Structure formats: C-alpha cells, structure tokens
User: What shape does this take?
Amino acid sequence: MARGGTDCDTAPHYPHQITPVSIMVSSSSEPLTDGAPAASVPRSLQDVVIRLAGNSQDGIQTIGGFLARLAGRSDQDVMTYMTIPATISGGPSIFQVRMGTGEILSAGDQADLLVAFYQESYASHIGFLRPGGVLIYDSDHVKIDADDHRFTPVGIPITGRTVEAVGGSSKDKGKNLFVLGLLARLFELDVAKLTGLVKDRFGGRSEDILRNAMLAFDAGYGYPSDNLRQSFFRLEAPAATEGGRPKVTLDGNTALSYGLIAAGVRYGAGYPITPWSSIMETLRTELSKYGGIFVQTEDELAAISYALGFSYAGHLAVTGSSGPGLSLKMEALGWGTMAEIPLIVINVQRGGPSTGMPTNVEQSDLLQALYGSHGDTPRVVLAPKNVEECFYVALEAARIARKFSTPVIILSDQGLSSRIEAFDEPELEKLMVDPKLNLSERGLDFKPYPLDRITKHATPGSRIASGKYPTVTGLEHDEMGHPSGNSAMHQKMNEKRREKLKALAAELPLPEVYGDAEGDVLLVGWGSTWGPVREAVGRLRAGGAKVGQLHLMHLNPMPLGIDAIFRRYRHVLVVEMNDPGIYGFGQMAMLLRAQLAMPHIASVAKTDGLTFKVNEIVVGVNKRVDLNREGARA
Amino acid sequence: MSSATLTPPPAAPGAPLTKKALTADHPTWCPGCGDFAVLASFYRVLERLQYPQESIVTMAGIGCSSRFPYFVNTHGGHFIHGRSLPFSAAVSLGRDDLHVFVFGGDGDGFSIGGNHLVHTARKNVNLTYVIMDNFVYGLTKKQTSPTSPIGFKSKTDPTGAIDQPINPMRTLVNSGATFVARSHATQVNHMIEMMERAARHDGFSVVEILSECVEFYEGAFDGANPRKGGQFKLIENHDPSDQVAAYKLASEPWPGLFGVFYEATRPTKNALEAGLIAKARERTKGAGDLELLQASFRKAR
Assistant: This one.
C-alpha cells in the first residue's frame, strides 16, 4: 500500500531532497517589480528554468533556440522542451530552456522564470511557475491576479516598447527579440555571441529585417531592469574545462541526421510526417554535398522500397517516419528481414494510435517495432536516451545493419526530436565511416544465404566467379536464393535469421547501473526517459532508499545478463511513456516479464503526451513501493 | 517448384553474353503461357545489347510473371507485391552503372502498384518496365484484374466484371512516362524490337505486352493474333512525340494498335539528381566528407 499522500500529485517530502534550483530574492528590490516579495540575499544560481509562453507565430521557438545555443556556446549545459500546436498556423506554444553549470538531465519540473505574452499564456502556465519565481508579462496584453502573492510579477509593455523601437509599424513583430534582449541583460549572457546568432539567422534576409531585429533586441536589452537583474539572477560561470571538447547544441533530429552522415549513410527516402520530417529535410539538403541522394517518395511504402533498393544496390540507406508511417512500411520491412537486407528505419514516435497526438511525445511503438509484422521477423531495435545519443545511435545502427545484414529500427520520439541539448562535439576524425561499394568478384563458393554464416550479399555490378548470379527474395529460399517450399528449409532459414541476432546479443555490452548497485528499487528505462529517471534516482536516494537505474539502448536483442542485475533489487520498475494496458504493464515491462519471467517487474507508465516530470516518477515509485517500511525492515 | 540450376560455367570477362549464360532456373509457368515468349525475347534483347552480365539487374514484384528474375541469370530480386518500381528506381538512382529491368503483371503494375507507376513515370527514373498483361489474376487463380474487360467472368465477378478497366497506354502517356509501347507475346520480332528500343531509351520506358494466360483467360488476345483470325495492327504515320495524338491512338477500340505510342526526351531524375550533387559540390568547393560534417558541427558550437 502506498504511503500517505503519495496518491496526489505533490512530491513526497524527503529530508535531503536535492533542490536543483535556488534563486533568492534580494531585500534591495526596487519597485520595478509590482509586488513586494520576501527579502533575502542575492545568490547566484547554478541552474535556471525559463518558460516562454505565447503563440506559435510569435517566434518564441526562435529565441528559445538562441538561448539554448548560447548556453551551449558558453559551455553551460542546457536542455529545452517545447510544445507546438498541431494546428497549421497559430495557437498557443511554449518554449522552455533549462540551463546551468551542472549536468542537466531534464527540462525541469517547474519554471524559475515565466514570460507570458498573452492572457491565455499567463492563465495556462502560472501554475508551472514555482512559488517565489518571477513572472514577466506583457502589460499591454495581460492582466494578472493582483491578489496572487506567490510570485514576483514584473509587468513590461513588451508590445508597446517593441512597436516603439522598431518604429512606423503597428505590427508587433519583434516581441520575441525584445524579450531575448531583456533576458540577455538579466542573465548577463554573452551579447556579442547572441547578436552573432541573431545575425546568422536574419542576416541572409533583407537588411530591414536584420535591422528591425536588432532594434527590438537593443530595446529589450536597454530596458531598465537593473534592480531585477541584481536582485534575482546571476548564472554562475561554468568551471573552466581543461582540454575538453567544444560543446555543440543541436536538436535530436539534427543529431540523428548528422549521425547517419558520420555512419556513411548517403542514400535514403521518406515521406513527410510530424515529427520525422525535419530529418528528411536535413538529409535532402545535406546528402547532395556528400554525393548522395535522398528521395521524397509518393508514400511510405515507396519510401521503404526505395531505401531497400538503395541498400541492395550497395549503399546502406535510411528511411523513417512516425508511428502510422512505420505501420505502412511493415510489409516491406518483412521483406527486408526475409531477404536479409541492411537498412536503417527511424521512427520518431508520437502519441497514437492513428493520427493521435502528432505533436506530443509517447513511447507506444515499441511492440510495433518488435512485432508489427507478418511471420517471424526477428528485429533489431535501438533507442537513444538523449540528443547526444541520437548521434551515436545512428552509428551503432549502421554498424549492426552492415555486420548482420539486417534492418535496424531506431525509436526516437517527439520530445527528443525538437529539444535542444548541449554536448561534447563528437570526435569525427575517429568516427567517420567511409561508404565504399564492394564490387570485387565473389568466389566460386558464393552463396547469398549460407546456413552456416551471416549473409553477405553480392552488390550488383560484382562478377560472380561461379557464373550463378543471385536473386534476393522474399520467398522462402535455399542457400542459393532459389524459392523453396521445403518445410525443413523454412525452419533452418528461420533459425538462421534468429541466430544472427543472438550473436548480436552476445557481443553487446551490459549497460552500467547508476546509483545503488543493489537494494530497494531498480528503475529501468529506454529512450528519452533517461534524464528524468536519473534525477528521480537522486531524489529517491536522498530520501534514504537504495535505488539504481538501468537504461537500455539495445531494446532488441538485449545484452545478456540483465536478469542478474534485476535479481539484486526487491523491485524493478520500468518507466515508460505508454499505456499499462489491460494487464497493468507498459510495453517494455511486458517484454521484460515475458523474457525473464520475473514477477517483481512492474510499471510506472503514463500517456499524457508530455515528457516525464521527475516528480511524477518519484510519486509513481512511491505508489508501488513502500520505501519507508522496507527501509525500516532493512 | 524446381530449384534445378541450368547455369553453365561463366563466360570469361569480355566474352559475348549469350542466351546460354543468361538462362537460370526453369520457368515455373504453365505450359502454353505467353510469358515463355517474353522471356525468350528478353534473352535475345540482352544478346543484342551486350551489357556486361554483372551490370544487369532483373527485378519483379509478385504475380506469375514476377517470377521472371529467377529465370534470368543476372543480379536481381523478387520484391513485394506492387512495389518493384520504387525499389528498382532506387537501384537505378544509386547506381548509374547498372541496367535495370523490371517485370510484372497487370495486378502488380496497375492495381496494387498503380500509385508507384504514376510517380515513377512522373520522376522519369531511368529504367525499363515490362508489363506482362494477361487481364486476369493468375497466381491466385482467376480473379478480376484492373485490365479485365467488362463482362469478364471470374471468381470475384461470377456474373461478369462491372468495373471500367484501366487503359494502360492512356495511363502511361498521361503520367509522364517518356517511352510508352505495346506489343503482343505471339509477335516475337515486334516484342524484341519494342523491348530493345525501351532499353536504349534514356528515361522511364514501359512496354505492355499482351501475354495470354492459357489457364484462366484462354483466347483473351486472339483478336490481335493473325493466326487466330485476329489483326495485329501496327501504329503507322504517327509522331511519337505528340502526346495528344498518342492519347487518341490509345483510345482505339479493342484490340487497339501496337508499337510506340509515345517517346519523348525529358531530363531523367538520374540526371537531375546528379545536377543537384554537382551544384552542391561546387558550393562546398569539393570539400571531403569529414571536412563537411566538421563544418556543420562548427556551426552548432
């Protein structure tokens, strides 16, 4: 039975709970602020969460991106989170930036600073601002609740000042840059770098646009905010990193695209679908520089068919989509398994089923990725844990696809696709794979489907010494690729296709356990839940529980030895963003229970379309496990 | 199904490519099937073209005629139903050194693969597509096909087909295919000529060959077979670059005309993509792969 109070949405209290953010309010606060918050000594902060709330046409994604990029450039760690309306144009939209000097694992459960552009933005997001936090609102649009003393409200006529600064026009375009200027001043951000970013973005367009952008920025920067600035915010300069690699800031889809390029992938095909499209847009532009081709096809079925065709022609290729598109690709994916063709398939998951929640996050395509096909199709499925791993997972997918001559599915998600994180620039000199066609003559003993080894296809254009040219096929076949209706042969070939994935499993490293190596609870995750789960482990341990984290990148096949790790904990809770279903287990939890037959595996699962808050995980654990009682017993 | 291989020892590099070297598994078609003649004609076409054996790719989807790649000793593949065109388009786009031939039937090409036919034509991908049209689903044993004429009695239309059939020539001309021809499996010389011209055409070239299914639609094409009292009428006095005239010719009543309906020069997707690559490389001054990706990351610092 759960501990008292844990069924509601508030965090259980732990005596040594880590509070990631500590902003104090100065007593010398001058009346720039409307209210009169509590007095305190100004303190620098290691970590701040800023939420910008407006409408999608206000360009808040743009300035949020600037802030994130700047943080990355300044060697701050950073993570962003955004929502985009599923409507074609307009609608409420937010961009959240968390930046700081330590390791940033999640986008933050609460904001320290909320910027509200409209009444609706204020009404919808004030609940996300932590008590004692600062509310900056556009006093031309927003009327705040004067009786609400939980926050420090700061009214600024953002619209009026922007129009005034840009001049001549009644339009309020540029509000975003006004706010960017204001924030740059508040947080003492590197203005030279920031204006450089603005110029990079707008410089290519007409001079008027750049000039207006800079006028709005300067107006925001020059807005009298000294009191607020001195009182509230000062980001600590990050500790100097010695000999470290430069930080880069990218979103997950771009990191994945660059990873594919580094992996030597030069060909691909796709069909537009949110949130996959930006990968195909990037590859369409980038691959031609590398002598490759990305084809926009007539539909999802053609997309995977093209990708298989490119791969067959000797160029390991990529296709991708989101959940509904992956369903459409399934028949051809079955062919890829049967014909044993290397291929990378990306699924940037979103809320489903059907069109579902196209701009929200979910991890509900795991079982589709593993089993969504006809026949027995052993699948390789990988998932990146953060933006940085989006880059490296592409390299791993390409390695496996080539070595084992098999399709590999990468499960990313909407959260990872668009959020921006800073990470160490990859050592490309060591990582780049040079794609080369192997057109050497194949020996007399060449067989496309040998029973005793992993298939290595002969690329068309290669001479075959025996004179027997191979046919790759979706029909069950013998070793030479001839159609075979022989029942023993079908069984043998099924074994062949299965055994190669067992060989893959045997070579995979066991992921390291973070936190306690044994004890009360092991939190198991996959994909983008990594950061919030890690933060949750910290909070739970601070509360006295013995908690560890095991995060999987190789979802199928899994590394060997997971069962031994599971045995070291009284409870194994799988944290994932999908529905616990009729029997109470999320998709990964169900797989693990089926594979390992361990009854102490349970689920912390949800499908609200939003990334896990750390608190939700902590609450979820406490609902299922009575940590106090167990702690007392131990 | 026979898995016997009739493949002879390989010809030395540079030796002429002969029917003997091209023969692979014995066809699994029913005795009397029109597809045998198409296969024999294809060997003759390859003998004339003399492409290096290893540079030929023979692809197909699903259907009786789509067994074709097993019977031709070249690189090739047996893909899924209706999608052999996008697969093969990628082989062509990825490898300009290969010669890509795609075979299939009316169900594969006009029904389940209809969308791909239109878009491969629109993109003008450089490959040759031979549709062995028998007006019926044979592999699944006599269901109505998209080219079955109204009134045709099948297991899915026991009282006779009621849906308007596709007119392949009109569809292809309209979609942007740049070589569109029609032939008949009993007219071997004509078939060879059409396939050879299609192969030599730079762009998406299609030949529809009426190929009788003796099992499920016997006598379907007698109307165009002089030996069965029909008339094999060739296209005459026609400018094949005239799209409107081609469309009109394609509207002639059954059994219609045979020959090249439409032939045009339009940049292939292969050439257009190569152009994009050349331009991109000009802009990046021929930078190497590592250099290019490093530059992308530098921008993200």
